[in-house]
Design goal:
This protein is α/β, with parallel strands linked by helices. Among the domains are: about 40-195, Rossmann fold (3-Layer(aba) Sandwich); about 195-320, Transcription Regulator spoIIAA (2-Layer Sandwich); about 445-500, OB fold (Dihydrolipoamide Acetyltransferase, E2P) (Beta Barrel). Helices cover about 30% and strands about 20% of the residues. It has helices at about 70-80, 110-120, 120-125, 135-140, 145-150, 165-175, 230-235, 245-255, 280-290, 310-315, 335-340, 345-360, 380-390, 420-440; strands at about 25, 40-45, 60-65, 85-90, 95-100, 130-135, 155, 190-195, 215-220, 220, 240, 260-265, 295-300, 325, 365-370, 395-400, 445-455, 460-465, 470-475, 485-490, 495-500. Strands 2, 3, 4, 5, 6, 7 and 8 form a seven-stranded mixed β-sheet that branches. Strand 3 (about 60-65), helix 1 and strand 4 form a beta-alpha-beta unit. Helix 13 (about 380-390) runs parallel beside helix 14. The protein is globular. The N and C termini lie far apart (about 45 Å). The relative contact order is 0.10. Mean pLDDT is about 85; it is low at about 1-55.
Length: about 500
């Protein structure tokens, strides 16, 4: 799958994905790639915490690791906790409640959780009523082991228990009454909510406090593919889809709040299937036809589920559906793909790409890649490089294979040495850079439509995204946030474009 710390910022020459690429993945985006800050958690706190009016309300601080699904989950947590009078704060020192929304895709994910929680020991000693909770995929995966090994943790909740968070926090707070030290609370008094609600329908309302110009909407959760390297089926559960009418209602409500663009999220969005029988292509067509959205994006797709119908719908509704597709291939070698349980061959993936390019001539492609999967030979790695060059991906998100609990590949005997994996990753990026920089030069001199997301400064520098999923920084104009404007590109990099407002003649 597909991107997060104590603050995550745009980092030049960083190599991490910004959507649902594998966590810890590196991307060959040398200029201004959105970074997921590999060594810390993203602080998902709103702009301008409201201090004065809400001084007496308890503060909540959430640090977020992982993919965009986790970032979206954090927004949901904030929204739910605001309903019970918690207010977001911009540092753990100001908080009465600290939550680590964790990711288990990164290397040493449990260690990262323990390390971060350890930093809060002094805060806990100064304030026995400070609560520390662990959520996300590490919470789902490790369950009560987290509490057994780290007494600073007050509660653990899994990915299916987010909506129970306010009640869980309330119960945890009651248990700290009359406690003068955190060690007075016994392990057996601490709550762990990590069960999957397999039979419950996926009925959720999109909760976002300040959606801005562009936001995310979950349409599926979980995954049924069981790729041998991936923990998602074990940390997110089996795949479920939201009813089509619920998604339409959510999106229309967001447009009434000023949202111009949504990204549809799921571990595998194009296996979406509503209870009414509608598939992902049907959902895209309805969103494009029946809502006031200006743009629609989606991530992530699985090659086996990307069909002609979906490609045709994308082209037919290109006035709203962006021409950017993120289609992970993971390995360019058919034998390795079989070991990964990807359910397609190299040849079938290339046939799929050819079909997409015929249906959408202006398509822009990116992908995910794993190097050093168990048993991968040098010749098989070279197949991966050749596939990258043959397809012409403008952006790649790549990472070294690492063993994950509960996955079949973790038990494979022929693990590739770490130094070999590192060398292959470096060579992959070098090969891609050599192709990608000349490839994106075609944008220079073009005028692209950019949805402006924010002002970068007070001097007329703005940023937004193009339909090709490029971050665009440009000069010129006033009061542009939320507007679609023409920008003449003056300098192009694989992930970032720079330009100037194209003024009418």
């Amino acid at each position: 799958m597909s991107e997060w710390l104590n603050v995550s910022e745009v980092i030049l020459q960083e190599k991490s994905p910004d959507l649902l690429s594998p966590e810890g993945a590196q991307t060959s985006n040398p200029e201004g790639a959105r970074s997921s800050s590999p060594e810390g958690a993203r602080s998902s706190n709103p702009e301008g915490a409201r201090d004065s009016a809400l001084e007496e309300m308890p503060g909540v601080y959430i640090s977020t690791y992982g993919c965009q699904m986790n970032v979206n989950d954090t927004e949901r947590m904030y929204s739910l906790l605001e309903m019970v009078n918690y207010t977001p704060v911009d540092s753990p020192e100001k908080a009465q409640l600290i939550i680590v929304n964790s990711c288990s895709i990164r290397e040493k994910p449990v260690h990262k959780v323990y390390s971060e929680v350890g930093h809060y020991k002094k805060l806990k000693e100064l304030n026995p009523k400070l609560l520390i909770g662990i959520g996300g995929c590490v919470g789902q995966q490790e369950k009560d082991k987290l509490i057994q090994n780290q007494p600073l943790i007050d509660f653990v909740f899994g990915t299916d228990a987010i909506d129970e968070l306010p009640a869980l926090v309330g119960r945890a707070l009651e248990k700290t009454t009359n406690k003068k030290h955190y060690r007075e609370l016994k392990r057996e008094e601490k709550e762990v909510l990590t069960g999957f609600q397999h039979r419950a329908p996926y009925h959720v309302e999109t909760l976002v406090r300040n959606p801005g110009v562009a936001t995310f909407v979950n349409i599926t959760k979980g995954c049924d593919n069981f790729c041998t390297f991936c923990v998602v089926p074990f940390t997110r559960g089996r795949e479920k889809s939201r009813p089509l009418e619920h998604v339409l209602r959510d999106v229309q409500a967001l447009t009434q709040r000023g949202v111009k663009e949504v990204t549809l999220l799921g571990q595998n969005v194009n296996s979406y299937e509503s209870l009414c029988g509608a598939d992902f292509a049907d959902l895209l067509a309805r969103l494009a036809s029946e809502t006031d959205l200006q743009r629609i994006r989606f991530t992530t797709s699985h090659p086996k589920d990307f069909d002609q119908k979906l490609a045709d719908v994308m082209f037919r509704h290109q006035h709203k559906v962006c021409e950017y597709i993120h289609l992970p291939f993971q390995s360019g070698n058919t034998r390795i793909l079989g070991l990964m349980n990807r359910r397609y061959s190299r040849e079938e993936y290339l046939e799929k790409i050819a079909m997409i390019k015929r249906a959408i001539p202006n398509v822009v492609l990116s992908t995910d890649i794993i190097v050093g999967f168990p048993g991968e030979t040098e010749a098989e790695f070279q197949d991966t490089i050749r596939l990258v060059l043959e397809v012409g991906f403008e952006t790649i998100y790549a990472f070294k294979y690492s063993q994950r609990p509960n996955t079949k590949a973790a038990l494979f005997e022929d693990q590739v040495p770490e130094d070999v994996k590192s060398d292959r990753l470096a060579r992959l990026f070098a090969a891609h850079d050599e192709m990608a920089f000349p490839l994106v030069k075609r944008y220079e001199g073009q005028i692209l439509q950019v949805l402006v997301e924010k002002a970068e400064d007070q001097k007329g520098k703005w940023s937004g995204r193009s339909t090709q999923n490029k971050s665009v920084y440009f000069l010129g104009g006033e009061n542009l946030v939320g507007k679609m404007v023409p920008v003449r590109i003056t300098k192009a990099f694989p992930a970032v474009l720079r330009g100037e407002l194209a003024l009418p003649n």
